[in-house]
# Entry
Amino acid sequence: MPKPLSLSFDPIERADELWTRRWGAVPSMAAITSIMRAQQILLSQVDGVLKPYGLTFARYEALVLLTFSQAGELPLSKIGERLMVHPTSVTNTVDRLEKSGLVVRRPNPLDGRGVLAAITEHGRKAVEEATRELVGMDFGLGCYDEADCRELFEVLRPLRIAAGDFTPPDAQALTPRP
# Structure
Protein backbone atom coordinates (compact mmCIF):
# COMPACT_ATOMS: atom_id res chain seq x y z
CA MET A 1 0.00 0.00 0.00
CA PRO A 2 1.59 3.31 -1.03
CA LYS A 3 2.33 5.84 1.66
CA PRO A 4 0.09 8.93 1.37
CA LEU A 5 1.76 12.17 0.37
CA SER A 6 2.81 14.33 3.27
CA LEU A 7 0.84 17.54 3.66
CA SER A 8 2.58 20.92 3.92
CA PHE A 9 0.50 21.76 7.01
CA ASP A 10 -0.80 20.00 10.10
CA PRO A 11 -4.40 19.02 9.25
CA ILE A 12 -5.33 18.60 12.91
CA GLU A 13 -4.03 22.06 13.74
CA ARG A 14 -5.97 23.44 10.75
CA ALA A 15 -9.13 21.66 11.90
CA ASP A 16 -8.61 23.15 15.37
CA GLU A 17 -8.37 26.65 13.88
CA LEU A 18 -11.53 26.16 11.82
CA TRP A 19 -13.35 24.59 14.78
CA THR A 20 -12.41 27.55 16.97
CA ARG A 21 -13.73 30.03 14.40
CA ARG A 22 -17.03 28.18 14.09
CA TRP A 23 -17.74 26.86 17.60
CA GLY A 24 -15.12 28.40 19.85
CA ALA A 25 -11.96 26.95 21.35
CA VAL A 26 -12.26 23.30 22.39
CA PRO A 27 -8.70 22.06 23.00
CA SER A 28 -9.99 18.55 23.76
CA MET A 29 -11.09 18.19 20.10
CA ALA A 30 -7.53 18.68 18.82
CA ALA A 31 -6.17 16.45 21.57
CA ILE A 32 -8.50 13.53 20.85
CA THR A 33 -7.98 13.84 17.12
CA SER A 34 -4.21 13.72 17.70
CA ILE A 35 -4.54 10.70 19.99
CA MET A 36 -6.72 8.85 17.48
CA ARG A 37 -4.31 9.61 14.62
CA ALA A 38 -1.36 8.52 16.77
CA GLN A 39 -3.20 5.26 17.50
CA GLN A 40 -3.68 4.66 13.76
CA ILE A 41 0.02 5.31 13.07
CA LEU A 42 1.23 3.11 15.91
CA LEU A 43 -1.12 0.22 15.13
CA SER A 44 -0.05 0.28 11.50
CA GLN A 45 3.65 0.15 12.42
CA VAL A 46 3.24 -2.47 15.15
CA ASP A 47 0.90 -4.62 13.04
CA GLY A 48 3.51 -4.50 10.24
CA VAL A 49 6.02 -6.11 12.60
CA LEU A 50 3.54 -8.63 14.02
CA LYS A 51 1.89 -9.75 10.76
CA PRO A 52 4.67 -12.22 9.76
CA TYR A 53 4.05 -13.99 13.08
CA GLY A 54 0.32 -14.24 12.39
CA LEU A 55 -0.32 -11.80 15.23
CA THR A 56 -2.24 -8.62 15.82
CA PHE A 57 -1.43 -6.39 18.77
CA ALA A 58 -4.34 -7.90 20.74
CA ARG A 59 -3.04 -11.43 20.15
CA TYR A 60 0.50 -10.33 20.97
CA GLU A 61 -0.70 -8.82 24.28
CA ALA A 62 -2.43 -12.08 25.18
CA LEU A 63 0.73 -14.09 24.47
CA VAL A 64 2.85 -11.68 26.51
CA LEU A 65 0.39 -11.99 29.38
CA LEU A 66 0.67 -15.78 29.24
CA THR A 67 4.48 -15.58 29.29
CA PHE A 68 4.25 -13.40 32.40
CA SER A 69 2.14 -15.99 34.24
CA GLN A 70 3.99 -18.52 36.40
CA ALA A 71 2.71 -21.60 34.61
CA GLY A 72 2.31 -20.06 31.15
CA GLU A 73 -1.45 -20.41 31.37
CA LEU A 74 -4.39 -18.39 32.62
CA PRO A 75 -8.18 -18.68 32.76
CA LEU A 76 -9.82 -16.86 29.88
CA SER A 77 -11.66 -14.67 32.39
CA LYS A 78 -8.34 -13.54 33.90
CA ILE A 79 -6.97 -12.72 30.43
CA GLY A 80 -10.00 -10.51 29.75
CA GLU A 81 -9.66 -8.82 33.12
CA ARG A 82 -5.96 -8.09 32.70
CA LEU A 83 -6.26 -6.93 29.09
CA MET A 84 -9.45 -4.99 29.92
CA VAL A 85 -11.46 -6.50 27.08
CA HIS A 86 -14.87 -8.12 26.73
CA PRO A 87 -15.07 -11.93 27.17
CA THR A 88 -16.09 -12.30 23.51
CA SER A 89 -12.88 -10.56 22.46
CA VAL A 90 -10.84 -12.95 24.61
CA THR A 91 -12.60 -15.95 23.09
CA ASN A 92 -11.92 -14.68 19.55
CA THR A 93 -8.29 -13.90 20.39
CA VAL A 94 -7.68 -17.31 21.94
CA ASP A 95 -9.48 -18.99 19.00
CA ARG A 96 -7.06 -17.35 16.57
CA LEU A 97 -4.02 -18.12 18.72
CA GLU A 98 -5.14 -21.74 19.04
CA LYS A 99 -5.65 -22.10 15.27
CA SER A 100 -2.10 -20.80 14.80
CA GLY A 101 -0.72 -23.32 17.30
CA LEU A 102 0.43 -20.55 19.65
CA VAL A 103 -1.83 -21.58 22.54
CA VAL A 104 -3.88 -24.60 23.55
CA ARG A 105 -7.05 -24.69 25.60
CA ARG A 106 -7.38 -27.08 28.48
CA PRO A 107 -9.89 -27.55 31.30
CA ASN A 108 -9.18 -25.56 34.44
CA PRO A 109 -8.53 -28.13 37.20
CA LEU A 110 -9.58 -25.55 39.82
CA ASP A 111 -12.87 -24.71 38.12
CA GLY A 112 -14.84 -27.51 36.49
CA ARG A 113 -16.52 -25.17 34.01
CA GLY A 114 -13.52 -22.92 33.35
CA VAL A 115 -10.99 -23.07 30.55
CA LEU A 116 -7.31 -22.21 30.60
CA ALA A 117 -5.32 -20.84 27.68
CA ALA A 118 -1.77 -22.20 27.77
CA ILE A 119 1.07 -20.88 25.62
CA THR A 120 2.84 -23.48 23.47
CA GLU A 121 6.55 -23.64 22.67
CA HIS A 122 5.70 -22.27 19.23
CA GLY A 123 3.87 -19.40 20.98
CA ARG A 124 6.85 -18.72 23.25
CA LYS A 125 9.20 -18.59 20.26
CA ALA A 126 6.87 -16.26 18.32
CA VAL A 127 6.41 -13.86 21.24
CA GLU A 128 10.17 -13.73 21.90
CA GLU A 129 11.01 -13.01 18.26
CA ALA A 130 8.20 -10.48 17.86
CA THR A 131 9.20 -8.75 21.08
CA ARG A 132 12.80 -8.37 19.88
CA GLU A 133 11.54 -6.71 16.71
CA LEU A 134 9.07 -4.44 18.55
CA VAL A 135 11.72 -3.34 21.04
CA GLY A 136 14.08 -2.76 18.11
CA MET A 137 11.61 -0.31 16.60
CA ASP A 138 10.73 1.20 20.00
CA PHE A 139 7.11 0.09 19.52
CA GLY A 140 6.82 2.88 16.95
CA LEU A 141 7.78 5.56 19.46
CA GLY A 142 11.39 6.03 18.35
CA CYS A 143 10.90 9.77 17.89
CA TYR A 144 10.54 10.06 21.69
CA ASP A 145 13.22 9.56 24.30
CA GLU A 146 12.75 7.66 27.56
CA ALA A 147 11.62 10.76 29.47
CA ASP A 148 9.06 11.60 26.77
CA CYS A 149 7.65 8.06 26.91
CA ARG A 150 7.31 8.25 30.70
CA GLU A 151 5.61 11.64 30.33
CA LEU A 152 3.16 10.25 27.75
CA PHE A 153 2.34 7.42 30.14
CA GLU A 154 1.74 9.87 32.99
CA VAL A 155 -0.31 12.27 30.86
CA LEU A 156 -2.67 9.46 29.79
CA ARG A 157 -2.89 7.83 33.21
CA PRO A 158 -5.65 10.11 34.66
CA LEU A 159 -7.83 9.29 31.65
CA ARG A 160 -7.41 5.58 32.36
CA ILE A 161 -8.16 6.10 36.06
CA ALA A 162 -11.28 8.14 35.23
CA ALA A 163 -12.43 5.32 32.92
CA GLY A 164 -12.13 2.86 35.80
CA ASP A 165 -9.18 0.85 34.46
CA PHE A 166 -7.77 0.69 37.98
CA THR A 167 -7.73 2.42 41.33
CA PRO A 168 -4.36 4.03 42.01
CA PRO A 169 -2.67 2.89 45.25
CA ASP A 170 -2.77 6.39 46.76
CA ALA A 171 -6.57 6.51 46.26
CA GLN A 172 -6.94 3.08 47.89
CA ALA A 173 -5.18 4.39 51.01
CA LEU A 174 -7.76 7.19 51.23
CA THR A 175 -10.74 4.84 50.89
CA PRO A 176 -12.29 4.10 54.32
CA ARG A 177 -12.41 0.42 55.21
CA PRO A 178 -15.65 -1.12 56.49
